[in-house]
Model the fold of this input.
Amino acid sequence: MRTLTDKKTLNKRIWVIALPIILQNLLDAAVSSADVLMLNYVGQSAISAVSLANSMIGIFFMFLYGIGTGIAMLSAQYYGKDDLKTIEKVEGIGLKFALLVALIGMVCSLAIPKTLMRIYTNDEALIEIGAGYLRILAPGLMIWAISAVYMSILRCVGKVAVSTVLEALALVSNVFLNAVFIFGLFGAPKLGVAGVALATVISRFLQLAGCFLVSIFGNSGVRLTFSTMFVRYRVLEKDFARMALPAIGNDMVWSLAFSVYSMILGHLGDDAVAAYSINNVVRNLGTVLCYGIGSASGIIVGQILGEGSIEEGKEAGHICLRLSVVTGIIGGLISLVLLPITLHVVSLSDTALDYLKFMLLINTYYITGTAVNSTLIAGVFRAGGDSRFGFWCDLIDMWVYAVPLGLIAAFVLKLPVKWVYFLLCTDEFVKWPWVFKHFYGYKWARNITRDSSEL
Done:
């Protein structure tokens, strides 16, 4: 049995990793909030168009997140084994995947932006605005891919604070540049939605420059290098593919499902889209704590398992589960507190405000479901290389249950917007029985590292 001192030490290790990630998530959510507030002065259509375009960018982001998870699964355990050389090899493999995905995303955003927007809406005004946004944002995807891989590595080797500073650099500069280009400050032209896209590209470039500076002058232990991209590490590549591909698949089926949610609501009218867009911003603020715990759990549990401490890894998993419940409840309360403030600040139609109030109330309990599932599926399970369970769990939950239910509710039964949204938000709780059963089976608690002679 673990002593009280052992548990306090585990709690401390988790929070040392979690707090900088929580700060990073808070900054990210704050930037999204600032973007919406500034776009509020451009118009409701601008908010809706950027939200729908970002649903497509969200698919790219989830690819990156899945690749980052594959990097983290291996890197965290090899860091627990104190093997930095292998981590640089993992970085090269991650860069190959990430840049390929970014190239595809960039080409599609440049070549067929209107086609991409039509997936989400049939409103020509929104399609035109969103297409212009995607064209400008496209080159930034390549920049974003490189920095995302390196920052994932930094988090795994104990440089979470450095990663947070780099993310803060991008986010703070993004807010500043958004204000400059939206309102035409300092003699800049008023670009509206195009200014938001341009600000994002410039801020991600500044972040990448910061990554290179850390790599060259910092004491990170792992360099940002492209040379390992062109070397074959067959055994390590197989390990990466075996663990990362299901994680990428998991994140993709999850992300695509949420894109379909946006598509469903997008075809229910501009009021529904605008309300959903602002609701997502508030929900992001409510989930900063739980996503921080989820990310930290994947790193800390992975490091412990990589050290060969299986029982301690299980105990860390239990602590992370308890913390996810607590942070989920806190997130719901945050959403409740922000409800009257949000309704007062935004400029929406009366119908959109009515939808928004209902969606914010759903958040008060929905965030707890998100917190528990993200911590266990994307954190604890993946820490031991177990990414297949999450893939099959979300594939069945989202695509056999939630998406068909939403489509039937919206387009066959033609239920009101509130009912459609409520039914979509049952997805997190339907999978709880299987998630908890898998957690207490402990098949995820494994050391997945190899000896250097095998690599």
Summary: The chain has one domain: 4-454.
